[in-house]
Amino acid sequence: MQEITTKEGFVPNIVAFCCNWCSYAGADLAGSSRLSYPANVKIIRVPCSCRVNPMFVLKAFQRGADGVIICGCHPGDCHYVTGNYYTRRRMAMLFSFLDYLGIERDRTRLEWVSAAEGAKFSAVMNDFVAKVTALGENKKLSDLRVKEGE
Amino acid sequence: MKEVESKMLERAKVLLESGEVARVIGWRKGAFCHDPEPASFESVDELKDFVYDYFCGANLSKYLIAESKKEGKTAVFLKPCDTYSFNQLVKEHRINREKIHVIAVECMAKLDIGKIKAKGLSAVTGVEVDGEQVKVQTLYGEAVLSKTEIVLAKCATCNKTHQVKDEEIVLHERPVRDVNRFAEVEALEQMTAEERFKFWREQLSKCIRCNACRNVCPACSCIKCVFDNPQSGVAAKANDDKFEEQLFHIIRAYHVAGRCTDCGECSRVCPQGIPLHLLNRKFIKDIDETYGEFQAGESAEGKTPLTEYRESDLEPKDVLKEGK
Amino acid sequence: MQRIGVFICWCGSNIAATVDVERVADAVKKDQGVVYSATYQYMCSENGQQLIKNAIKEHSLTGIVVGSCSPRMHEATFRKTAEAAGLNSYMVEIANIREHCSWIHKDREEATEKAIILVRTAIAKVNLNAPLSAGESPVIKRALVIGGGIAGIQAALDIAEAGFEVDIVEKNATIGGRMAQIDKTFPTLDCSACILTPKMVDCAQNEKIDILSYSEVEEVKGFVGNFSVKIKRKARFVDEKKCTGCKLCMEKCPSKKGLDEFNMKLNKRPAIYIPFAQAIPNVAVIDPEQCIKLKTGKCGLCQKVCGAGAIDYTQKDEYIERGYGAIVVATGFKPIELNAFNEFGYSENQDVITSLELERIMNAAGPTNGVLLRPSDGEHPKVITFIQCVGSRDTSGCGKPYCSKICCMYTAKHAMLIREKYPDTEVHVFYIDVRTPGKNYDEFFRRAVEQYGVDYIKGMVGKVYNENGKLMVQGSNLIDNEQVLIESDLVVLAAAIEPEPSVRKIATLLTASIDTNNFLTESHAKLRPVESPTAGVYLAGVCQGPKDIPETVSQASACAAKVIGLLVKDKLKTNPCVASANETMCNGCSQCASVCPYGAITYVEKELRVDGKTELRRIASVNPAVCQGCGACTVTCPSGAMDLKGFSSKQIMSEVEEICKR
Amino acid sequence: MYRIKKTDLNALYAAIAKTSGLFIPIRRADEVNFAVWGEGKEVSLETLKTVKSPKNAFFPQTENMMKFKTEGKSVEVVDIRTEDKRPFVVFGVKACDVKAFEVLDRVFLAEPVDTFYQSRRNAITVVSLACSRPEESCFCTAFGIDPTAPEGDVTTWLDGEYLYWRANNQKGEALTEKLASLLEKCGEEAVEAQRSQTKEILKRLPLAALDLSRFKEENLNELFNDPRWAELSEACLGCGACTFVCPTCQCFDIRDFKTNSGVIRYRCWDSCMYSDFTLMAHGNSRTTQMQRYRQRFMHKLVYYPAQNGGLYSCVGCGRCVNKCPQNLNIVKVIKTLGGEKS
Amino acid sequence: MTVKEQCENVKRMSGTDVRKCMKCGKCSGRCPAFHEMDIKPHQFVSLLAQGRIEELLKSEAIWSCLSCMACVERCPRAVAPAAVIEAVRDTVIRAQGANGMKAEDIPPMVDELIPQQLLMSAYRKYNK
C-alpha cells in the first residue's frame, strides 16, 4: 500500500477536456477577455465531449492528475446533435461509480460551457481548482510508479 | 433434481439421435460430487457422463458464441439467469440465434462448495439436498446445513425467469424470493467515502489478475480485450498493489455497464472471493434509479441505457446523492 | 520516429510579454522527436510562415508544433503552410499558448512553465500523428425532393433553375399539397391557387424536373453525393402518358360515393377522378377501394369512354431506383385528429368544422362553390365562433405542446373575409394569445378587429353543445371575468398542425433524426437550420417545424441553395478526421451504430485471416463520407476497435500523460 | 523436538519478526494468503490451502528489474534492485508447497541463475507445517509426498494445544536457537499419533489412487497427439486462475511501465492459458485454447520431468482443482490420459 | 403558519404546478358553477400563483365548487384548478378542526334517487 504525503502549498494538477466547438472556444473567449484562472488547468482539445472515454479520465488519475473536468456544449447545442447527451450519461454513471469506490466526488466534474461563456469558463475553473485544492493530492488513484526516480 | 436430470438426458438423446442438433451443451460429471464441468455432447454415447445437479452453477451462454459458428444446430440447457446473458449476446450479434436450440431448465438455486467448506467441512464426499436441508458427507463425518446459507451468492437474490426458450423442462415452481438484491450496495453507499475506499482497497488488493472474472463474463466477449492490447493504452498484466487492479476493475465494470445482466459469474469464479458483482450492481442500481428500470438481457433488441439518452437526463452532480 | 519542428510565436508582445518564448523553445529542444525549435515575432506572417517552410525542407521535418494563438484562429493557416512545404497538413499541431496561457496568467514564471507543458503536450501528440488525407467521393448531379407541396415545388424549381435535374416524389396523385387547398393567403389575401398553380405548371414544363406523383420512397442507400433511392410508383390504373385530362371518365363513372379528400371529405367524388381542376399531372387516378371494375370485375365504363385508351385495370405497383446527390425533405403537415377534444363536439356536430374545412367551403372551387353555407343544412350561418389553440400548446397529452404558429393569422383572415363578404354575420374569436410576428401581420390582425369589427374574446371555450339546433358555445371572457354563452350557427376550430405521419418512415430511411413531436431535427438550430444532421439531407417547410408560406418558401430556396452548392462540386472532400474500426478487434456488437447520429456505421460480413485461420466476422464499417468525427462511437466500443483519426485514443492519452508530468 | 503453546504463537511470531521478515498465512478480507506478518494481523495456520501458494516469497507476482532513465535523447540504465539481505522466515508451508520450492529451484537456480530469485531463496528459512485434515482435492501422495512430515528447514505440527517444532538442518537449528526461550523440549508421541491418524485418512481420499505411470517421456508423442485433449479443454475459459494459484508455475512476462522520467522494466507472472502468452512478432505459437491447455499439463507431467530426472512439476496441492471456474483440472487430465489404478 | 407556508402547503396538497397555467381560461369556460362563484376557477390558480392565499381562504366559491373536475379534465396544461379549490377548502376545514360529514352519516342518506357522485362530492367537500 502506498503512502503519499501532501506537500506544503499544494497546487493541484487539473486536466480539462474541452469540446472543440463550444467549450474550447469558451476558453479562448476567457483568454481574449483576460479572465484569469489558475495556470494548473491544462486543456486537451477533443472534437466533442462524447470523445472523452472514461479510460482517459482514469488514465489522468493514474498518472497523478488531481482533478479531471470535462466541458461540452450545452445540452441541445451539440455540434454533433447528440454527443453531449451521451457524455452526460456516461460521466454521471462514471462519477457516481468512482464515488462508490470512495474516490472524492469533487475530483471529477462535467460542465456545459458555450462559446459565449468565457466568464463562465473562468469561474468554473476557479471554483474547480479551489475544490480540488481543498481535497489535497490525489492519493487514491495515482500510481506511484509514475513518479519513480524523480 | 434427479427427475429433471433424467428428463434432460432423455431430450438430449432424442435431439442427438434424430439429428435435429449436432451437439448438446450441458454438464459432465466431475471427479467429485461437486465439480461438474460444462461440456459438449456430440453423441448418445458421450451422454453417459451427463449430469445436472446442485453444482451446475456455470453460465453456459458464453460458450454459444463459438458453438453457433459451428456446423449444424446446437442445443443448450439454460437456467433462468443464463437466458438473460443469451439474449444480450444475441442482441450484440455474438450468437447466431437460429443455430441454437434453447432448452430452458429448472433451477432451484445452486450450491457453493466454497461456502460449504467455509462451514468447516473438509473432504466433502457427498451432498444430498432435501428441500431446505442439505446433508453433507465428509471423510470426517456428516453435517446438515441450511440451503439458504450455502447457495451461490448469485442465487441468493435471484428471481429471474426464463427469457428465452424453444422448449422447457421445468417440473417445479421456484418460490419467489423476497430479497433486495441491492441491499449490499446500499450498505456500502451508507458508509463514508473513506470507509468505502478502505473496503474496496482491501478487496481489490487481493486480486491476482488471473482474469477469471473477465473470461467467464458473458458481457466481456471482446475478441481482443483492451487489457491484452498494447495499443489500447491501458494494457496491463501486473498485479501491483497500487492502481492497476482498480483500473482493471473500474474499466471492466464500466465496459459492461448497461449490458451486465447480473448473472453473478464474476463473483462465483473469483479465486480470491472478491465480491465483484457489487461493482456491476452499483451500475445497475444507478441506471435503474436515474434512467428508469432496465434489465439487460430481457430483450434481444433495443438500445442499452448508455447508448441512448433523454433530453431531460440528470446532470452528473444531481445523480450523486448526498451520502454521509 | 518523427522529426519534429517546434515554432514558438511571440505574437508581438501578446505572448512574449508573459511567456519567456526563448526558454520554451529551448526547453523542448531535446524532447522526443524534436530536431528543431525556433521563435519568431509573428509566426502567422508571411515571414513567419516562410521560416516554417524553410525548416520543414532543411530539416526534413515530419511534423510541426506551433506554439501560438488558438487553433481556432490559425490552425488552417499553418496547415496550408505545411502543405505548401510538402508536409501533410495533419502533421501540424497547435499549442495554444496565447488564449490558454499568456492572456490569462500574469506571473511570467508560471506562464512560461505552463507554456512549456502545453507545447510538450502538443509534441507528445504529434509524435503519434499520422498523415491523413481527405478522401473523395463523386457527386451524382441530381436531387430528390420528397413532397410536392409549395416547399418541394419551390426547392425543385430553384434547383432546376441552376441546371440540375430534380425528381419530385409526391405520394398523392397531384402536386400542390396543402397550399392548393387554401383559398386565400394572409396577409395579402392573394388567391392561393393563383400564385401556386403557375409554379405547378412551371414544374411540369421544366425539362429538368421529373414529377413522380402517386409515388413513395421505399428505400434509401448510400450517403451524401451518392444516394440510391428506391421509389414505389403506385398503380393509378391510368396511363399517365395517354390520359388527356378530359374528365369524361369522371362523368360516366357510376361509383360516385367516394369522399373527396381534396375538399376535406365535404363532398363526393367518382371512383376515377382528378383531384382538382389544376392538378399536375392532370391525369386521372382510380381509387381501387371504390372502383366496381377492380372490386368485382364488372363495369369497365371508364375504359369504354376513354378516347385516349388510357385506362389500364391491370396496372401494378412499380419500383424504380435512381441515384441522387442530395435529398430535400418537404413532407409537410396535416391538422391533428380532433377525436380527443369532445368538449368542442367536432365529431357530433356537422357544423363544428376545422379551419381547413372552412378554407374549402370559402373556395370557389370547393363543395359550395365558394358560398358560405353550413354543412348541416346548407343555410347561411349568421353567428360564427372561432376557437383558437385547439390542441396547440397543450401539455395535457391530448394535443401538441408547441404553438402551431399559423392559426392566429388564418383565423384573422377567415374572420375578416367572412365579415367582408357577409357583413350581417356576427363573428367571435376565442383566443388565449394572439401571436402575429411578421411583416404586416399585426396590422392585418388589427384590421380584422378595427375595420371589420370581429369580436375577439380573451378566453377559452369550455364546451360546445347542441341545443335546439343551435350550437351553444360556453367559454370564459377573462377580461370581464365572465362566463359567456354564444349561440352560434357555425363553430370553426383552429386545429393544431402536426408533421405528415409518413415523415417517420422517411426519417428512418434517411437516418435523419426526428424530435418527440415528429419534426425533423435540423443540424444546428441557429446556424444550420435547413440541413439535417445527416449529410446531404435538407429540410424544407413544416416537416422541420410549424411555419407559414413565406417562411416555407424561404426555407425551400435556402435548401435549394445548399443543394446547388453541393451539386456543383464534381467530388466531395471528406473530413479525414473520421472514425474507423480495426477489423481484427471489432466484435460486430452494433453498439457504435446505435450512438452514431449520422448513420455512418454499417456492418459487413467479412472473411478475416486470424491466427492462420479464416473466419467470417461481422464488422463495423464507417462510411468516411458520412462520418463527421464526433467520436461517440469510440467510447461505446468496449474493445477499442473503433478509433478516431486525428484524435486517437493513444494521442489523447499521450496528451494526458504529458500534462500529468507537470 | 520442541513445542510451544498455541496461545503463545504471537510471541513466537514477534520474536521471529524481530530479526527477520516473517511471511505467514494471514486472513485479509475473508481470504487467507501468505503475507508479511505484523502486529494485529490475523494469522490462520489452520487454513489448509492459502489461495496463492507461498512461492511469491521469492518469486513475487510483480517485481521491478531495472529502470531506463531518459534525459533528452540519452538513455541511462539504472539498476534499481534493492537486494534484501535480511533473512526471511516463511512459516506454515504445507508439504506440497515445500516440494514446489524444489520444482522452482530447478528452474531458477539452474544456469543461467536467476539472481533475483536466488538472493531471496538463500535468505529464506522454510518452516513447514504438517497437514492433519487433508481434503478431497488433495493428491500430494500421488507424487510421493508425505503431508504428515513435510520437508523444510523446520517442520511443525499443530496438535491439541501445542505447536510441535523440529529443526531439520543447520538453517533450522539456527532459527530454533534464536527462539529457544519460547520453545520447550518435548517427546514425539503426540506428533506420531497425529501422523498415523492422518495417514489413515490419506488412504481414503478419493484421489489417493491416481496413476501417473503413463506420463513418461517415451509416451510424449502419443500423449501429445491424444484426441481427448479437445474434450478435456473444451470448457476452458483461458483465464489464468489455475496458473496463478499453482505453487509450481514459474512463467513470467517482462514488461515496461512508462514513468514520467523513463521506463521501469518489470516482470510479472504470466499464464500459458493466455492468448498472448509467448507472443512473437509472427503471431502466436499456440493459437487455440486446446493447445494452451495441453501445453500446461504436458509441461507439468511430461516435459518438466523429462528434463528434471522424473520430478513432476505438480505437487498435488489441489488448488487448481478448487479454483477452476469451470471445474477443469489436472486430476481430470491424469484420470483421462493416465488411466486409474483399480 | 405564514402566508408563504400556507401557499406552499396548498400547492403541495393540490399536487398542481400553478406556473404551468397559460391563462387561457378554459377552466372557467367549462365550469357549470361559474356564476355561483365569487372567485372563478382560473382565478384560484392565478391568485395562488401570486401568493394571495388569504383571499382564497375567505372565498365562498370553495363551497360552490361542485368538484365535478370538468376544469381538470379540460385543462390543456394539465393544471388542476379543482384540486386547488379542494386544497383551499381542506385548509379551511382543517382550521375549523372538525369533519362536517362523517362516513357513518352516509348510509342513512342513501336512497336510490341520489346520484352516487353527489354523495362523493359532498363527502369530499365536508371532510378534511
> Structurally, how many domains make up the residues of chain D?
1
Radius of gyration of chain D: 22 Å
Please give the share of residues in helix of chain C: 25-40%
The Rg value of chain C, from CA coordinates, equals 33 Å
Output the CATH homologous superfamily of the largest domain in chain C.
Answer: FAD/NAD(P)-binding domain
Largest β-sheet summary of chain C: 5 strands, parallel
What's the β-strand tally of chain D? 13
Determine the mean pLDDT of chain C: 95
Low-confidence stretches of chain C: none
CATH class value of the largest domain in chain C? Alpha Beta
Predict the CATH topology of the largest domain in chain C.
FAD/NAD(P)-binding domain
- Main structural class of chain D: alpha+beta
- The total count of helices of chain C amounts to 20
State the end-to-end CA separation of chain C: 24 Å
Task: Please state the oligomeric state of the protein chains shown.
Answer: heteropentamer
How big a fraction of the residues of chain D is strand?
A: 15-25%
Tell me the number of structural domains of chain C: 5
Helix-strand string of chain D: EHEEEEEEHHEEEHEHHHHEEHHH
The gist of it:
With 150 residues, chain A is of the alpha/beta class. Chain A has helices spanning 23-32, 54-62, 83-100, 118-135; strands at 14-19, 41-46, 67-72, 108-112.
Describe the protein's architecture and organization:
The complex is a heteropentamer of chains A (150), B (324), C (662), D (342) and E (128). With 150 residues, chain A is α/β, with parallel strands linked by helices. Chain A has a domain at 12-35 and 54-68 and 87-138. In chain A, 37% of the residues lie in helices and 15% in strands. Chain A contains 4 helices and 4 strands. In chain A, helix 1 links the parallel strand 1 (14-19) and strand 2. In chain A, 70% of the residues are buried. The radius of gyration of chain B is 21 Å and the shape is globular. The mean pLDDT of chain B is 92. In chain B, the strands form 2 sheets. In chain B, strands 1, 2, 3, 4, 5 and 9 form a 6-stranded mixed sheet that branches. Chain B has a 3-stranded antiparallel sheet with strand order 6-7-8. Chain C is of the alpha/beta class. Chain C has 5 domains: 4-126, 3-Layer(aba) Sandwich (Rossmann fold); 142-234 and 317-332 and 500-567, FAD/NAD(P)-binding domain (3-Layer(bba) Sandwich); 248-305, no CATH class; 334-498, FAD/NAD(P)-binding domain (3-Layer(bba) Sandwich), CATH 3.50.50.60; 579-645, Alpha-Beta Plaits. Helix content of chain C is 29%, strand content 25%. Chain C has 20 helices and 34 strands. Chain C has a 5-stranded parallel sheet with strand order 10-7-6-18-29. A 5-stranded parallel sheet of chain C has the order 20-27-21-22-23. In chain C, strands 2-1-3-4 form a 4-stranded parallel sheet, with helices on both faces. Chain E is mainly α and 128 residues long. Chain E folds into 2 domains: 3-97, Alpha-helical ferredoxin (Fumarate Reductase Iron-sulfur Protein, Chain B, domain 2, Orthogonal Bundle), CATH 1.10.1060.10; 99-128, no CATH class. Chain E is built from 9 helices and no strands. Chains A and C meet through helix 1, strand 2, helix 2 and helix 3 of A and helix 4, helix 5, helix 6, helix 19 and helix 20 of C.
